[in-house]
Design a protein that fits this description.
2 domains, four-stranded mixed sheet, Leu/Phe-tRNA_Trfase, transferase, alpha+beta, Alpha-Beta Plaits, EC 2.3.2.6, globular, 9 helices
């Protein structure tokens, strides 16, 4: 197991093609500084660990990805968009989305905890301040935040991290709205990390890690698109999504 030095002047990771455990763990330890997180994502590595545990860095094989042009939207979800009960924004309330994603997902002891601890929240808020982490918000008719997601954008790749919902289908609709906007902006790859039925229903598929890393390299080599999120000086407005 590769042990990271939190005091090293230049954050480095081993090549995940050769250094990961069977579970996909590439390294352990280090810190969640901006430079280290950027380097990790550029190498197809992400942090995922429980509170009071050392930081674990992952690059699973296979990797779940979604190509924006292959997004699948179910008939029921298209109907939900047409009802117009929700509106969507980008980067209007990043901290609120982070707090929503950190909420317990159930009532059992196993589901009451969350991997998204205070250290992780602070780290991604720093990435957001650097213009690298972004959120999508779903709002109801009363202006309440009822769902959303956040992730990291580098090159033409978007690394989805977590999502939450407080009303039926809010996170699903936020995800669809995000992927559609990313595709329109020129993004080529949405990293979904590990398999779940929830994401597979949208057309996400597993590919070998080596293929993922090769595609990621191509996404990072080209010009970076502007992205759908607001830029300095832009007004932040609500918009409805759908297809």
């Amino acid at each position: 197991m590769y042990l990271l030095d939190p005091n090293a002047p230049f954050p480095t990771f081993p090549d995940p093609r050769h250094a990961s455990s069977p579970e996909g763990i590439v390294a352990i330890g280090g810190d969640l500084g901006v430079d280290r997180l950027i380097q990790a994502y550029r190498q197809g590595i992400f942090p995922w660990y429980n509170e009071y545990e050392p930081i674990l860095w992952w690059s699973p094989d296979p990797r779940l990805v979604l190509y924006p042009e292959r997004l699948h939207v179910s008939r029921s979800l298209r109907k939900a968009f047409r009802r117009g009960d929700l509106t969507f924004t980008f980067d209007r309330d990043f901290s609120g989305v982070m707090r929503g994603c950190a909420e317990p997902r159930g009532t059992t002891p196993e589901s009451a905890g969350t991997w998204l601890n205070g250290e992780m929240i602070a780290a991604y808020e720093r990435l957001h301040a650097h213009g690298l982490a972004h959120s999508t918000e779903a709002w109801d008719r009363e202006g309440r935040l009822v769902g959303g997601l956040y992730g990291v954008a580098l090159g033409r790749a978007f690394f989805g991290e977590s999502m939450f919902t407080r009303v039926t289908d809010a996170s699903k609709m936020a995800f669809v709205h995000t992927v559609q906007a990313l595709g329109e902006a020129g993004y080529r790859l949405v990293d979904c990390q590990v398999y779940s039925d929830h994401l597979a229903q949208f057309g996400a598929r597993e590919i070998a890690r080596n293929r993922f890393l090769a595609e990621l390299d191509r996404c990072l080599a080209g010009p970076e698109p502007a992205g759908p999120w607001p830029h300095p000086g832009d007004a932040v407005g609500a918009s409805s999504g759908g297809t």
